[in-house]
Fold each of these.
Amino acid sequence: MLGQQPAGGFLGVSATAQAQRLRAAAARSPLLRKLAGKAALYAPSGATPGANASAWTIADGALWPIAERYAGNFPLPPISYGTVRDFADSADHLTGLAGASFDMKDLQRCWTIKAILGNVERGARILEIGAGEPLVAGMLSRLGYDVTVVDDYMGGGNGPREFKRFQTAYPDVHFIRELFPPSEPLGNDFSAVFSISVLEHVPLDQVANVVETGHRLVAERGGCSIHAVDHVLAGWGAEEHREKLDAIAAALGLSEQELASQIEAMEGDPETYFVSAEAHNRWRGDLPYDQYTMRRIGSVNLFRSGG
């Protein structure tokens, strides 16, 4: 039997902070909102016209402490992987965004926010490849970045199709509705190009061009490429995922040996963040389990700075 809860809350976390986290996770989760019959985050009932919908994950008042915490203070190695430690940090400091999807994007979106803040000056021009629902692009635009999203919004890789809805909900994000690279010239004044759970869906014979073209956009200014890539370590599709990951890393000019070392570390590290059984079951949808069996999926994080 638990004794009386101390004044500081359970395990040193105040009751108020606990309640805030639970409310943020519940109120901003697409799954729970759907089950409760509520509108999706990007089209909230009663939203202020012209408001950026990412504010429904992290409000303006909470945004600036995040900027102060991570700006210039999130060094990135060329190759790393998602960890429970990093997710816990995000759950503490980017609570709404860390509970927006109940899958690995909760980890990856927050990591990307921290990576951009830590390595790209605010006010810089940045580009996201294949944003889907542009929660990260929207949040970065609110932090002062000039954000362009390139996405055809045709549902590839189980992505969303609601282009007009997103365009209305994120008025300060510039959208180009095409696959990357788009037909229109983009210029070479970007300071960062990034993607979240996208490159693994690009066909193998096209992925090197996507990565190389993206980095050319930032090379002249000494900018950076930042990519969070879903990677299947075990289960169906593991060999294909490894082949594509090798191609992505090679296109960025990253070390083949370091990639192999990080993959080996992922396999044995108890801190490695893996997609949960619950998230897998939601991805499975109506498919019989035998048609969509469990896999070990983590996030490989790639970073290249300069030309």
Amino acid sequence: MSLAKSASLKQVATFRTVARLGSVTLAAQELHLSQSAVSIQVASLETAAGTALVERTGRGVRATEAGLLLLSYADRLVALWNETSDEMATMLGDFGGTLRIGAVTTAEHWLPRLLVRFIDESPKVNVRLFVCNRDEIVRHLATQEIDLAVMGRPPTELQVDSTVIGDNPLAFVAAPHHAIARVQPLTMARLAQEWLLVRERGSGTRSSLERVFRAAGHRLRMSSELSSNEAIKQMCVAGFAPAYLSLLTCPLELNAGLLKVLPLPNNPTISSWHVVRLSGQPIPKVASAFESFLIKSAAAEILAPIREHLPTSLPIAAPCTERKLRVARAKAA
């Protein structure tokens, strides 16, 4: 029997919910159906597929090998159908839909404020926000689990279009009571003698730190490697070691005097935030609208909480509406 001719989208969506929750009972509760109705939907899909898609375990069900294969397509099918529904509603004048966006972990310190502003203007928009390190964001973008990505350095392994939306000040910081904070004058050669708190491999901040040390000709000494900006920040505040962080992650600590920017030449340095999308890939209207919103509004909003901690001599970019945008297309490596 042909799956394409015999299965329905409702059956696929029901199977997807069962597989995700690992329970017919929980799936029935989420879908507001009876357990028997859910079981019938899954059984009908199995008949159409010609094989079992789920198998019972001690406490529920799990997808079989065939079920896992179908599930990978089901996720895309349901997402495409939801996107179609959103686009139809938008075309009929009811702007809304689901904004699927990914952001590197440092961006979670400013992106939510802009999401709230956007949703206030478009209350029918739902948000699916993925926050993870740079490598994971690139994977989400490659598999089209997200329509837009917010990151520092655009990927070179994909063909993408990227637009600068604002500045990201990266700096060496330490607790005021740490010995390195009292060294005068402080140089990179002296800092290189210290153990540093660093992000994990795959994060944009870690890549930037490694480039700084390579450019200075010094070896990076890592005290601890952590996947959390918050953990690094709190260990730094406690005086464990200096750290290299985006200043956007620690406005409260800077304002309270719990952290200080180390008096190094060219510290902080300014990198750029980009909004990124796959080249040649159409995106939903809601994603396009948010992309335009970021280009127009992000630059001023990003730096607002830390502007007083930036040197006046440091060139700070103007809002994106007042400067020429750099749109880069990265060729596949």
